[in-house]
Each structure stands twice: as structure tokens, then as C-alpha cells.
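Complex record, two chains
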Amino acid sequence: MQFMLLFSRQGKLRLQKWYVPLCDKEKKKITRELVQTVLARKPKMCSFLEWRDLKIVYKRYASLYFCCAIEDQDNELITLEIIHRYVELLDKYFGSVCELDIIFNFEKAYFILDEFLLGGEAQETSKKNVLKAIEQADLLQECKTEKHESFVNPSCI
Amino acid sequence: MALKIVKGSIDRMFDKNLQDLVRGIRNHKEDEAKYISTCIDEIKQELKQDNIAVKANAVCKLTYLQMLGYDVSWAAFNIVEVMSSSKFTYKRIGYLAASQCFHESTDVIMLTTNQIRKDLSSPNQYDTGVALTGLSCFVTPDLARDLANDIMTLMSHTKPYIRKKAVLIMYKVFLKYPESLRPAFPRLKEKLEDPDPGVQSAAVNVICELARRNPKNYLSLAPLFFKLMTSSTNNWVLIKIIKLFGALTPLEPRLGKKLIEPLTNLIHSTSAMSLLYECVNTVYIDVNTPPLPSLSLSLCLYLSLPPQLCVQKLRILIEDSDQNLKYLGLLAMSKILKTHPKSVQSHKDLILQCLDDKDESIRLRALDLLYGMVSKKNLMEIVKKLMLHVDKAEGTTYRDELLTKIIDICSQSNYQYITNFEWYISILVELTRLEGTRHGHLIASQMLDVAIRVKAIRGFAVAQMATLLDNAHLLTGNMQRMGICEVLYAAAWICGEFSEHLENPMQTLEAMLRPKVATLPGHIQAVYVQNAAKLFATVLKSQEGNTDSTAAQETSQLMIDRLPLFVQSANLEVQERASCILQLVKYIQKLQQKDVEVAEEVSALFAGELNPVAPKAQKKVPVPEGLDLDSWINEPPSESESEDEQPKAIFAKEEPKHSRPRREEVDEKELAKRREARKQEQANNPFYIKASPSSQKVYQEAPGVEHIPVVQIDLSVPLKVPGLPMSDQYVKLEEERRQKERAEKKKKEKKKRKEKRSGRGKKHDSGPESEEDITPAHQVDIVTEEMPEKSSKHKKKKQKKEKEEKEKKKKKKHHHHHHHSDGGGEEAVQNGTVEEEEPLPVSVFFCFLPLTKVYDIQGNLQDGSQVVVSVIFENKCDSFLKSMEFNVLDSLNSKLQRPEGSGPHDGLTVPFQLPPGVSNEARFVFTVQSIIMPQKLKGTLTFIVKDSSTHEKLDFKLHFTCTSYLITTPCYSDAFAKLLESGDLKCSSVRLEGVNMPFHHLLARICFHHHFSVVERIDSCASMYSRSIQGHHVCLLVKVSAQTVSIDAKCDEPTLLGNVLDEIKQTFSQC
């Protein structure tokens, strides 16, 4: 997979993950072009399109479009599966996820994605394992934060 | 110090965190940019603080802003700072920011090497994990080289969580630092048998990706993968393994045989569509186009797996209600089609069904498939279906796509599949009824191609084209349909070139000379004119055979009557051809009046057949000595340095297959620059003639086209031309024909069998007819190798003829200029005779022996009381004329301007002498006080004939019409409306009866002779405007119904208006 984009129906980018090194300008150009192309498609159309020399696989969940770019030899259906898996993961983590969850916790959405995909390849096919890893990392973060807070607070007083 | 900490944490309480930022942005929708720039200022302040928590918060916000498209590269160093925090919370944010913002050219990456190494070896697996994840996004060749060993060690980490990530990231490392592959490979191979399924799948993933780039090195792993494939139940892993085998099998044919069983099992048993699709796709398709050119080897695999199995499975996909499966099924089908056309063709029904799908991308896929599926047998049926779709199709893009596909399908490989060209011609004719298509040109070129190459079809084609020409108004009626009028180009040419096949050439000639033709684009008119001449030749030939010679003369008269319209065309090509042919016909008419038979000679003009030129004809042209076609004209630009930057190909042959040549932006810019420069140059070059506007634009679009609202006519009635054939009937006919043929064949076969009774007699009995059995009804002349010698000769002849004609024309041109330059009033002078045999309605030629004088009265815009009269003097006698003096008897109202010092009755000396047969122009200025009335001025011209040395005198009258005081002034419709609303204008109207000319001609005439411009035209109603030299506004509303033209006019000077209207009336009474 070359990159994954999440954007809203209004064309606002919500998440982007690039697995190929590109400069910002190029990224912006691609994003703009793709968002336009995908949004222009009618709801009943299939999820695949050919774009430049890549294949684009996208799917709409509520108001969010999940859009992946894969190479010619890659499997479109498994990419759809990846998108779906990621949505399921978000759903499990946030508890019936909505667009606002991703907007306000965009770093969490990234962390989940990073546990699920690495370098554009699925690294963990088991949902349970991904969530477990995320939960543990979060736990680590929270207890450290608390420790930190308690360290800071007394000096305030 | 303590104070600083306290201050820092108090500030922190007022800092925005990420949520505040997001909320803030959402609340400042109107001035988002402004809000964000204040936020960025705050973030810059926060980054300056020592508190790492504050910094992390700021970096987190920056990551969000980066996604919104803001440049945050300036904060790269701060990101590194946060990455190196010892606390996981901040480290995590730092790495996330780095993975989002860093790329290969970020220079601070160099600083991170040691930090990343430290994190990789951290006792906390999540520290390691976060470092690996981040690294996967921003790994550079340097990082890859420095960290390869550390990552390799992690591949044998105790925790599968780390092993899995380490294995996956190795792929990225290999890409950036290929040398690491060799030492790491044994360990990678080991991981294929890792107890943890996640690690195993990661290893399969990496090896599969590597093998796709260079399969040869991974053949030794085949047994291992084979074991995995038969034992694994994880579809993700299976898909990768199948992909891997797809890459390996072409190199090792024996593998193919071994794979048949497990693959067939998988295809039959799996419920996962993704896996099924992968099987079909990889095995049948990728194998057929292997990365290495060893096609013959790869055949082993798919030969032993029946393609029917695959196609059947694909059928299931296509029949599925899910759009995605349908699309992929069609996609895979089109790939199989290349190798197994037969097995796909049997599913034609299904593919045709897909044309009804609501998803356009599916319909387009199905169309692609159909292109490859047609055969002689099913072409008609498929095209018939497509034609139905054309009728139903919504949206012009899809309809245009259908149209091009129909033509592609029919014309592919030299019309290989067309058995009946009559059918094809009717299809093309039916396609012309498409509204708003852009592909008129395509249809036209097909018509031409078929008519030229298929001799047997010409008679039919000509008949069809004649009908098209006759019904041309249906094609051109609507402005939207302008694209389709290209077809008339082909129609006119075919009718002209093959006019001997025409049943009623006279009628077609008539149709081609209709005044309406003048609204067509210039290049089409040009073809009309040229081919009208060809038709004329044919008609003459048929008419001269008859006893009645008047018919032939009438035909010439028709040409002479109609051609002047084209002579007036603004398109040079049309004008040139028309005036050339007009003169020719006039000459012919003269001969006819003397009862000379001319038909033979006229048709000799167009004798000879145009033959297509063979594609390889160029080869026959010898290369001139000293010309090296391979040498560069300009030195090629030096190769870009990007080549040097390419990584060394350790993965061998980085397939260039998918890298389409990308257009470089620089080139675009450069081109634009050059274009601009060229435009400048052309603008400054007085000899450069800019593209001439098409003829119809001349008056319709002259002033302020953009202000003319284009009314779109809604045509709900299907545009069926009566009398045109329906292609459908051919399908039936064709079937009957084939049946007959089949029956005949059967008879023959029976005979044969009777003769050979002793034979086995097990012959397949008249089963489905094979491709070869279908004999085409018409043969295409397919020119391949030889260029017919004849054709070149004929061409030359023709060219020569054209040249001659051109020369003739040039000579004639002189006269035409006269036509164009005159325009004022008209006056006949005593003892004058009209010189031109073809009287233009408002001709101003007045001539007398020995002098001809032509004059043009032009108002002077700068001075409201001045009128310039230019007079052309032409000496028609044989003697030299000198000392010419021009004098006019002044009236109260108009005075000739004389040089100071001369008396009011002195004449003006004409500043030149006239040798015999020469003409020259002199200008005289008159002062006019009132312009509301026309007037006539009497004048005399005195001159001395050199030989006789006597004074001669000529009397003449100058007619100053009110029209000549009008100056063509463009007016926009909104300004025009205001003018009418103002109420200052007086009204008057006039009716013209029995005007029999098309509306646009009428308008053109008013524009031309009376100096008006069209403001707006709607249907048969137009508003026009002009201005007098003294600033009177004259507005006209011209309406036409039947043969009655009513002109309602408004002007602030009623007398002027009345006179102008009288003059207009007079103009039309003369025609």
C-alpha cells in the first residue's frame, strides 16, 4: 500500500498516512486530486478506480471516506478488508466511532493504524492483538502522565 | 529555578491542548487562516520553553496543523527533542510527528540515529515498537545502513510483538540499503517458521514482496511455501503465498503441476472472495505476463488448469449483486480474454447485461471487454445492443464513449469482422442522429474510409449521403449539434466524388447549394463548393445527352445564382473556390449559349480516381543524398541527473513496466512560454494572418457575442430522418443471407458425402458455423504493401489542375475587390452602360466611355459634418487621359471642400493621369450640414484626351443617401435595451412583401448595405443598431414570417429614420 487517506464528505482531510517518501507539495497535490475524484463518484459506484498508475480502493463509512492507494499487482478485495478492519478497530477502541472521535483524537487514530499496518503491510491480522497492544501502550502513557502530574503539582502549591 | 517551573506550569494551564485547537478551528470557520496563524505564534512561544510537556503539546498541535496543509518543517528540531524524551507519552507524540512530517530531505534526521538506536534497545517493548513504527515512515539510506544491524537483532527478540515489527521493517531497510539483504536473509527465512502466526505472516509478506521484484533468488523457498500453503488457513497469508507462486512458476515449470491440486481445491472451497480473486487473477493473469520474458514456460501452468473453471468462477463474481465483485470480475475477464478469447466469448450475454449497470465504471469495463469479444458472427448483434444503449444513455460523456467504442469495435483490424458494409454505413448514419456528440469528425472519417475503400458499397453510400445532405437541416438545426455537422463534410465529398452513383444528382446539387449551407463551418462549406462543381459536371453530362438543351443551361444558371453567396464568404478557402468555380461556370454558360457541348471537358476536370496511399508508401520515396534522418537537428537535452540518483539495482530489473512517462512540469511551463512568445511575435508581424473566423461568425458574432443569449432548443422529438435505413433490418437480412449460405453449403456437403459414402461419415453435422464460414458481403480493399502507381499520377494531374484554377482565379480577383469595396448609393449617368454582367443588388458601378467611375461615400466619424467620397476612375478607352478636374455644384446643405483661396465654383484637380486601362482612386471631402435627408449633387468631370488634345466633359450625379451617413457601430444588448427604454426615440415601421431569402442573408444584407450591426438574434427575429455621424441612434427590430419582413425602427430623428427605411425598402425591392 502506498498511502491511506481519510477525508470527510466536505473534502476535509482527517488522517493521512504515507508509506512512500514524497515531498509535502506532491502529497498535497495527490490529496487534492484524489479527494476530488473520489467525492465526484456516485454512491452506487464500485469502490475501485484506476488513477495514474495506481489503483485506488475507497469506502465510505458514514460521513468519512477511507481511501487507499495500492500498486497494480495488489489485491483490491484484501485492501477493502484492511479498510474495514481498521474501521472495526476504531469502532472497538472508541466505542461506536464517529468522525468527531477521529478529529479530536487524531493521534490515537494514528496509533491504532500504526499497530495495524506497518510500512504499508498488515502487521497484525488479529483485532484482539492490536487492541491489546494499544491498551497497554495507553496504560503506560497514563500512569506516566499521572506520575508526572503528581510530580509537578506539589511544586505549584 | 523554582519560580521558572512554577511560571511554566501556570502558563501551561492556559495553553491550548489539541482539543482546544481543534475546537477553535471549528469555531473560526470564517477566518480560519488568521486563527491558525495566531495559534502557530503561540506554538512557537511554547516551543521556546524548557518544559517538555509543553513542547510535546505544541508538537502534537503542529502535527494536526501539518495535516491541514500548513508547513511545519521549521519545527523539525523540536520534534527531535520531543522524540528523545524519556517519557513514553511524549516519545510517542514525537515519533508520530516525525513519521508525519519528516521525509528524506529533512536534515535533522541525521541527529536521530543514536536516539533511535537507544529506543530500539529499550527494555520497554512499547518504546521499541514506537521507534520501529516511526522508522518505517522516515527511514533514509543513511538510517537504514546505520540501524540495519540493530533491527536484525530485533528479529530474534523474545517478544513476538517486536519480532513482527522488526521483520516488516526489514523490507523498508532492504529497499533503502540493499546490501543488508544478504546477511539478513537466513534470519528472515527462519521467521517463516516462527511459532507466532503474526511473525510468520510478516515474513511471508516481506519475502513475497522481495520475490515479486526478483523471483529467481527465492525459488529455493518454494517447498517451504508449498507446505505453508497447504497448511495455512489464514487468508491474508494465503493470498501472499499465491502471489509469490505467481511470480515463481514462470521460472520453474514443474511447480505448476504441483500447484494444480491445491489451487483447484482452494478455488472450489474458499468462501473468501478476495482469495478466489487472487487465485484467478494471479494464476491466470500474472503468469501469462511474467516479469521475465519466458511465456512459453508459464504456459505449463495454465494449460493444465482449465480456463473454463476460472471463467466460471469469474461469472459468479460478475453475477454478484456487489458492485465491487462485478467490477473485478470484468477486470479479470478482460485479462483472460487476451489468452482465451473463446472461453470468454461464451459469456457474451452476461457482459451485455453489465451494460445496463448503474455504475458507469462497470459499463466502461464491459465495453472494453466487448471490444475483444466480437467476431464476424456476433458483431451485428453486439452493435445492435450498443445502439440501443446509445439511445438510452444519459450523460454525453458516456454516450460519446459508447459511440467511439462502437466505431472502434467495427473498424478494428481493418474492418475484419464486418460482413455487410451496407449495415455499417447505416449504423454510421444512425449515429449522426446523436445529439451533442463531439465525435462528428470520427464518424465522418469512417464514412470516407469505407466509401473509398469498399468499392462495392459506393452506390449505397452515395444514396445515404445524399439523403443526409437533403436533411442537413436536421443536423445543423441546433447549435448544440455543431459537432455532428462534420458528417456533412464526408457526405458532401462522397456525393461529389462518386456522383456517378447518384440517382438524382440534380436534387443533391440543389441541396448542396442551399443558402443555409453558409451557416456551416468554413472548411465544410469549402468541400460543399468543390463538390458542387463535381456534381455539376455529372449533371451536365447527363443533361447534354438529352435533346433539350435548356435543362443544361438551367443547371448552369442555378450555379451562377447560388455561388455568389459563397463568394461573399469570409472564409478564404470558400471564397477562393467559389469565385473560381463561378467564373468557370460563367464561361461554360457562354459556351452553352453558343450550343457547344462542354460536358466532356467539364467532367475531365475531375477525372481519375483518388486512391488511398499505402501505409508503407513513404518507404518508396528515396531519401535525398546527404540527408541523414537519424542525426539530430538540435542536440538533445542532456540526460537529467535523476538517473545517477537511482538506487543500484540490487533487486535486479526494477520493472519499469508501470512507470509511465510523466510529463514534466518544466516542459509545460516552457511550452507556455514559447506559445506566449510566438503570439507576441505574430501580433507584431504584419504579414501574419490570424486564423480567420468561420463564415457564420461574420455578422452573427461580430460585436459582443458574449452578450447574445444562446437559446437552446429543446428537441424532444427523436431525430429520425424519414427514408433513412434502419440498421436493424440488416441484422435480419444478414441472418437470412447466412442461412441461405449455410443451406447451400449443406447441400454441397450432402453431395460430397454421397460421393464419399465409404468414408467414416462422422463429420460434425452443420454445428455452429465457424468464423471462416461467414463470407463477407463486401470486400474491403486493404492496402498494405504496394502503392498503386496510378494513384500518384492522378493526384499530380489533379494538383496541376488546381493550380491552373488558382491562377485563373487570381486574375479574376481584381473584379471581386470591386464588389467588396463599394457600398454607397448608386447613380447611373447619362450615356453610361452597366459594365458587370452580374448585377449586385446595390451595385455602384457606373461607367461611361471612356471613363469608369465608382464611388463610395463614407461618413467621417471624427467630424460630424464631413463626408469622404472616394471615387475610382478607370480609363476604358485607348487613349491617355490627363488634366482631370472634378467639380460639383454645391447645394445649401452640402459643399465640396476646396483648398483655401479657390472660389466656390472652381473644380478640383484630380492628382493623377490615367494611361489606357488603368484605374486609380481619388478622395474628395464634402461638408454636410444636415444629414437627415438624402440628396443628389450634380457634378462634372473635365479631362483632356492626349491624342486629340481636346477638352472632354462628363456630367454625373452623386447620390448622398442617408445610409451613407450611418456608421457601423457595435452595440451590446444591455446598452441597446437601455436605449429603447429611454423613450427619446421615435417609432416608425415598414413592411416588405415577398422577400424570398433566408433570414440571415437578409440580416447580412442590411448590415452590409446599410451599415448596421446585429445586436441580438433570436430565431426569426433580430435587433440591429447603427449610428449616424452626428450621433443619431438608429435601432431596428426585424421580424420575418412567411415572405413578409416587418421592420420596426426607432430613431431620435424621424426624418432620417424614414429615409433610411425607404432606402432599405429599395434595397430589397431590387432583389
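Note: The first strand of chain B starts at residue 845 and ends at 847.
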